[in-house]
Amino acid sequence: MRVGYRRSVSQFIVGLGVLAMALSTISILCLISGFVFCEAFGATHGGTVHKAGILTGFFAVFWPVFWDGGSKAYLAVV
């Protein structure tokens, strides 16, 4: 096995891990945002306010699209 092949496979696996951590964090934050909206506005869980709160967390998925400049690699750390 060539060294370059091992490096590319390991980078791919680490990249998948970073992506999985980011998506799991975003889904938890979406859920928490929904509950916070319900508590802040005195609404019931599962209603329209709860769903609107959940959707606010999905903006984090689009940060790589809007984030501009030379520090895009910093998104993996954040």
Shape: elongated
Largest β-sheet summary: none
Euclidean distance between termini CA atoms: 34 Å
Helix content: over 70%
> What string, H for helix and E for strand, traces the elements in order?
HHHH
Number of helices: 4
Q: What does this protein look like?
A:
With 78 residues, this protein is mainly alpha-helical. Helix content is 72%, strand content 0%. It is built from four helices and no strands. The protein has helices at 3-41, 48-56, 63-66, 74-77. Helix 1 (3-41) runs antiparallel to helix 2. It is elongated.
Task: Map the helices and strands.
Blueprint lengths: L2 H39 L6 H9 L6 H4 L7 H4 L1
Could you name the key traits of this structure?
single chain, about 80 residues, mainly alpha, elongated
State the gist of this model.
The chain has helices spanning 3-41, 48-56, 63-66, 74-77. The chain has 78 residues and is mostly helical.
